[in-house]
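Handout for the seminar on molecular recognition.
Each group receives one record of this type.
Step one: identify the two inputs.
Step two: read the structure output and locate the region that could contact adenosine monophosphate.
Step three: write two sentences on what you found, then compare them with the reference statements printed after the record.
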Amino acid sequence: MAEPGGVCYPPGLLGVDAAVERLIALGRNSMPAVETVALSAAGNRVLAKSVLAPMDVPPEANSAMDGVAFCHADLPPSQELRISQRVPAGQAPRPLEKGTGARIFTGGILPAGADTVVMQEHCEFAAESVRITRVPEAGANVRPAGQDVRCGQVMLGQGTRLTAPMLGLIASTGLGTVPVYRPLRVAILCTGDELLEPGEPWRSAAIYNSNRPMLAALLEGWGFDVMDLGRVADSREATEQALAAAMSAGADVVVSSGGVSVGEEDHVKAALQSLGALDFWKIAIKPGKPVAVGSLGQAAFIGLPGNPQSVLVTALVLARPFLLARQGQGRVLPHAFSVPAGFASKRAGDRREYLRVRLQPSSSGFELVAHAQQSSGALLSAAWADGLALVEAGQLVRPGDYLIFQSFPTLFIP
Ligand code: AMP
Ligand code: MG
């Protein structure tokens, strides 16, 4: 299958960008419930409606400096003014007496009739008057009403994830509450007869469940309410029971790990087909490849592979944009940067590979270093890495080649 860029993948494999586009479109098919919350509880939530400014900010013209407010056209040639009032921040001024100045402080409201502020460093003060030693331009050091925001202006669009400066901006207009989407309830299921939970004694043929805490932490970092439905045995019956439990628990989305390939011990697809609807995709991604997408009643379903490294990469690259779109978030693709590689690859692959890399200072700025162990079963490289570097299908990396880099800190937040 060909991507818009003309890259070709093995038959039956969907390109990552095409898959992400389809997942985002699927995510946008349904909208979460809306609730109104206090601004103090709105951080990191997604706006369900655009926020319009109910007033100008600043509401009134005020001084940007400690100094003297005066009317520029009325300044006498002596540049001396009688001080007729004092205007600290928080106190409403009287209109300016013609031909006088007002002692004013940062944030003080400009008296009617004044249009300019001279900073106090350019003033010589006497007992009741001031001489301006350097006359500023008319209008200087004044913050006009509406300089930041005009009444009625759309400040933030629907689908915006609220950050700290956005909360400050909303507060500056006097709004105490905002309409936001209710966080999605996302259920996690980990399939595998071999799985033990950390803390349990080890037995032969078992491995510990690393996907469970990893997925829970990712989902919590993205702002979802996580419902941990635990471990599921490798049988059709147990898998169907677990999916039914997820449906009756009221999950908005169910995310599973493992059991999604075509082996005899892989029951996720069949269980999903009998209880809901299945769309099975093989994606040209490494690590990763098989992903099950579908629905379970009202809930959406996304079945990730089992290998922990594949879970991490497919969760970050595929599940993240899907879930964020489903949460109503507008911009869901992660920030990416172009950074030169400080390594060479041995051979070109037929899928897009997401290498676990570190960002390291170099003579020209920064370069990417890849961890030596990129196996889909190994997690140490991911714990070591600063993020993911994209190597396209067919691409042979030489030192100095620019690669797209996505940092973990930006992928781990919504
Ligand atoms: P599967 O897709 O179920 O065949 O799993 C692929 C590989 O990932 C197997 O080696 C599994 O043992 C391993 N695996 C599956 N689930 C987990 C898990 N929750 N934690 C650690 N490894 C897992
Ligand atoms: Mg399995």
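Reference statements: The pocket of adenosine monophosphate (ligand 1) is lined by residues 190-192, 194-195, 207, 209-212, 257-261, 305-308 (CB under 6 Å). The longest helix spans residues 308-326.
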